[in-house]
Amino acid sequence: MLRRxxxxxxxxxxxAALSDTGLLREQNEDSIAVSAEYGLMVLADGMxxxxxxxxxxxxxxxxxxxxxxxxxxxxxxxxxxxxxMPHLLGGAVELANSAILSAARQQPEYAGMxxxxxxxxxxxxxxxxxxxxDSRAYRLRDGIVAQLTRDHSLLQAQLDAGLISAEAARTxxxxxxxxxxxxxxxxxxxxxxxxxxxxxxxxxLCSDGLSDLLTGPELAxxxxxxxxxxxxxxxxxxxxxxxxxxRDNISVILARVRSTPTAPARAGLLGRLSGWRR
Length: 278
Known about the structure:
Layout: E1 2-4, E2 12-20, E3 30-35, E4 40-47, H1 52-73, H2 84-106, E5 114-123, E6 126-132, E7 136-141, E8 144-147, H3 154-160, H4 166-169, E9 191-196, E10 202-206, H5 208-211, H6 216-224, H7 230-243, E11 250-259, H8 268-276
Antiparallel strand pairs: 1-2, 2-11, 3-4, 4-5, 5-6, 6-9, 7-8, 7-10, 10-11
Helix pairs in contact: 1-2
């Protein structure tokens, strides 16, 4: 388990991460990364023939991590509030999109590769979450699990339109058809949202190798039982997916909020302006 101890302007977090090939796939095309110093978690589920999916997810995770870290490093002690952090995270995903497209042009065998992405960035008393595809983010708070992302998938579109029931969706043949992914189209629309965090919150990023195989109650049960050992909790999530067949690669990242900033917010126009100064 990774622990993050940071300046008073940022939350303190505990992390765990695990990626597993599953029982049926020959290789793991998921990629994950945790940047504990900067409060960043990134998970990508690659798509494409041969090793292309692995390449795409690896590029996405590396570019997002490098972009966020390099930009925050220059202003670590003046982390901006408001909309700057979601913009930073969404922009990093867009750069990953361009990098994958560029790699595919240079290596014809990687043509058509792409990846889903879900990334989370903790800052002040907020979490920004960016995603494209059907990799998900969840939050456990006060015993209640909430899904914080909405899949960009054909199945989700059918559910939204009332064309299929939630029960039928669990066995649909369209389960893995995404309508948005990183590295497929130059005009990628990254969905980014910001949420307020609270002490005790437990956040989960996962690939569909987990979310497709666990019911909502199972997920709630395992997250509620996480206790203080997040690495054991990550292993339990992966094991449950494998117990249900392990049809895909399974990746999870967990983060628990130990404390949030307690310093009072700056007041007035001068405070707001100085908070944005670079």
